Amino acid sequence: MAWRGLTGPVARRADELAAGAAVLRSGWSGGAGVAADARLAALRTELTAVSPALIEADQVLAEFAGRLAAAKARLAAAVARADAAGLLVDRQGRVTAGPARAPATARSGTGTAGTGASGAGAAGAGAGEVGAAIRAALELAGAADREAAGRLDALAGAARAGWAERPPPGRPKAGADPGAVRAWWAGLTPAQRRWLVAYEPGLLGRLDGVPVAARDQANRLLLGARREELLAARRRLLERVPRGPVELAGLSRIGKSLAGLDALAARLAGDEQPRAYLLGLGTGGEGRAVVALGNPDRSARVLTYVPGMTAGLHDVPGELGRAARVLARCAALAPEEEAAAVLWLDYDAPDFLHEAAWPGQAQNAGPALHRFQEGLRETHDGPPGRQTVLGHSYGSLVVGTAARDHGLAADALVFVGSPGVGVAHAGELGVPPGQVWASTAPDDVIRWARPPDELARRSLLGASPVGPAIGALLGAPERELWFGQDPSHPGFGGRTFPSGRHGHTGYWAPDNPALDGMARVVLGR
């Protein structure tokens, strides 16, 4: 946190130098004035270039801490297992049978030799398994230490060599194929990559296929500019006289977005674990954000969560909390696993019911979600991780539509509180068999999101008790929802997990079994 906190003072000093240079320029001409202006510009350049390195140091240390926590969890699980089995673990990690596990014949002089040998063999096998688990935990900690030291050494070497570097030739265009972006990035030198982060953060911050760490550095550098965008938009509205309903609604929206942005900035600046990575940020409309908890490039289990109707920048703290609760449950169920969760709010979510009644906004979101998931696959370190995409409410339609029309780099899909996902059967979604999951609470109002033709029939039939039965006979099965088959219905061909009576937004409640269900799918259990 201390390293990341230095970026603010560095940015302020760079701005002060720019302001001072402007004043100097207006009153000092000639060769000396030109030389002074150049020197101030060079100092400002050095300050600008060092900010990504400060964020990078924080990333390295935070990831080191996270891997140590995982190693500690594995070690604690091994020691607990040893304790339960009556085994002893010494300070060097050696595991031996305790007195309670000595062969029965040795303790009492009775019994058979076969029984004693069997007991000794079982104790030996248990000691071997616990010893292996302890060694694996210690090896993880040692590997984390060596890796962090190497990354910090490389960063220190780059600082000694200086941050100045010519800009690299060529740039991927917005919306470029993530595989091509990854290949372009791999061909750059470390100095060129740092130059791009420092001087073209707007480009890197939105490029799927650029590693998570670099995108986080770039987007954090843009936080101040994004806030200024909102403040400038508010000033423009305040200058309008008279102000009508449109201006007042705009001021309200901007105020909420500012509050959401400030809350997000506080989370990014805080020391709460897991560390947050800012992978995208936009202030247009209701605002957009892509935020990861933990580094997806370094995690074996990665969740991408797509929220639904009314989601916007103002909602980011709450929606990020939902992703965090799934991640926390994963840690409780499998403390030895390294997992990350991403809030993907990079689409224009419907604000009103009449907008949510149409699939257009979900269809528009499909290409971006497809690229994002492909980017995660491209930039992941080591063996491929397990990628799960979760959609809630209208967000489930976004996920289903993207999978249907573009394909998703996902090992599992999860739909909660869904009004339908745009397909009639799980087999149309393109993920491995048995990896489409859904849950709908018994009291979720989404169950009443019947298709338009059925609503018309029911209206004609009236509200009599026989209306639904007659409607079914006329071809309106109860599994049909507004956007297609109910993914929680057995006929959809997916799998389900239970939810308690928590309504449409309570799937993440601590006492809801749906939270366990989501976490188990992420873990692949």
Largest sheet: 8 strands, mixed
Q: Helix fraction?
A: 55-70%
In the predicted model, the low-confidence regions spanning at least 5 consecutive residues are 101-117, 455-477
Mean pLDDT: 85
Number of strands: 12
Beta-strand share of residues: 5-15%
Order of secondary-structure elements? HHHEEHHHHHHHHEEEHEHHEHEEHHEEEH
Distance between the first and last residues' Cα: 34 Å
Shape: globular
The main sheet orders its strands as: 3-4-6-5-7-8-9-12
Radius of gyration: 28 Å
Tell me the structural class: alpha/beta
- DSSP helical segment count: 18
What features would you describe in this structure?
This protein has 525 residues and is α/β, with parallel strands linked by helices. The longest helix has 55 residues, at 30-84. The protein contains 18 helices and 12 strands. The protein is globular and about 80 Å long. 55% of the residues lie in helices and 10% in strands. Strand 3 and strand 4 (288-293) form a beta hairpin. The two termini are 34 Å apart.
